[in-house]
Automatic annotation (TrEMBL):
Protein name in the entry: LysR family transcriptional regulator
PANTHER family: HTH-TYPE TRANSCRIPTIONAL REGULATOR YBHD (PTHR30419), LYSR FAMILY TRANSCRIPTIONAL REGULATOR (PTHR30419:SF30)
GO molecular function: DNA binding; DNA-binding transcription factor activity
Organism encoding this protein: Vibrio diazotrophicus
Keyword tags: DNA-binding, Transcription, Transcription regulation
One family name in Pfam for this protein: LysR_substrate
Domain of life where this protein originates: Bacteria
InterPro entries in alphabetical order: HTH-type_LysR_regulators (IPR050950), LysR_HTH_N (IPR000847), LysR_subst-bd (IPR005119), WH-like_DNA-bd_sf (IPR036388), WH_DNA-bd_sf (IPR036390)
Protein's UniProt keywords contain Transcription regulation: yes
One GO cellular component term noted in the UniProt record for this chain: cytosol
Length: 312
């Protein structure tokens, strides 16, 4: 807002040029000159001047009222502009697998939002290959997921390993295999497997060496058996509860799944294991806001899963 209007508001509020000048930190002659200049520009008498001081004319009262309104509008506009600018500067787009959101990312994001209440934050949940595609296209800043075996060397990304985790196989409580004291991988072959992922055919360009993926599918005979698939964890749990399907998923989700009536099978051998961590673009690895969120993620990982083996 123009300084002359601010000066007028102060004089009109104080009804004393000397007091107003002190509050504005300018000389009284300068302030008096500026008020006379304002009256001349508007061609209106704003003050009744006398030896006892000044009072406002009717026009002066109207101008004071309107100037206060303009001041509020001006201040509100500046506040909104600052809010938009702050939000744009601190916008964060994060991808995650289903498990990691429930286990630690939700709390890390909550802490980040408290520190940056004006920030735009987008969370994209899905399988690691679609997340990698989003990262490489610039649609997300980072994502948390399992380390991608056979990833193309052309992908200019950085992987920050967090922990090693094993997959358990979750089923409904009444599943036929829950009545066994222990299960082998061979026991699983006759039952459908549910995979929490979308079709990955369109993401195969991201994989340079598919041998480990083929080996995993061969060990668990996934190419021969019935497969249910969904990109929704909620839908996947419903399918498992309504069938004899098997749901391989990180064992650290056992407590979460128990609330929905799913239990891990008593396997006498490891189903699979892998490291999980944070993927980000190499050029973004020094970004202050990304580093801040990474630090929060590490804090909650250490707090909740310090017992898990650190990934290399």
């Amino acid at each position: 807002m123009d300084r002359i209007w601010r000066q007028y508001m102060e004089v009109a509020s104080c009804k004393n040029v000397s007091h107003a000048a002190k509050k504005l930190c300018i000389s009284q002659p300068t302030l008096t000159h500026n008020m006379k200049k304002l009256e001349a520009e508007l061609d209106i008498v704003l003050f009744n001047r006398s030896s006892k001081g000044i009072t406002l004319t009717e026009s002066g009262e109207l101008l004071l009222e309107q100037t206060r309104i303009m001041q509020r509008l001006y201040d509100n506009t500046l506040s909104k502009l600052a809010h938009i600018n702050k939000r744009q500067e601190r916008e964060l787009k994060v991808g995650t697998g289903h498990a990691w959101w429930h286990l630690f990312l939700r709390e890390a994001v909550k802490d980040y939002r408290q520190k940056h209440p004006g920030a735009n934050i987008t969370i994209d949940v899905g399988n690691h290959l679609p997340q990698m595609d989003l990262l490489l296209s610039g649609d997300i800043d980072l994502f948390i997921g399992h380390e991608i075996t056979g990833l193309s060397r052309k992908a200019e990304v950085k992987f920050l390993p967090l922990r090693m985790t094993e997959n358990s196989v979750f089923v409904r409580k009444e599943h036929p295999l829950t009545y066994k004291e222990s299960c082998t991988l061979q026991d699983l072959v006759e039952f459908p497997t549910l995979e929490v992922k979308p079709s990955e055919d369109r993401y195969q360009h991201l994989i340079e060496d598919p041998q480990e993926i083929k080996l995993y599918r061969s060990i668990h005979q996934l190419t021969e058996k019935i497969i249910y698939a969904s990109n929704s964890l909620s839908v996947s749990m419903d399918l498992v509860k309504d069938s004899n399907a098997l749901l391989p998923f990180p064992e650290v989700m056992a407590d979460y799944f128990s609330d929905f009536g799913l239990v891990p099978l008593p396997l006498n051998e490891t189903y699979s294991k892998a490291s999980f961590g944070i993927y980000l673009l190499r050029e973004s690895s020094e970004d202050n806001h990304i580093c801040e969120l990474v630090a929060l993620i590490n804090h909650y990982i250490d707090e909740k899963f310090g017992y898990l083996k650190a990934a290399n």
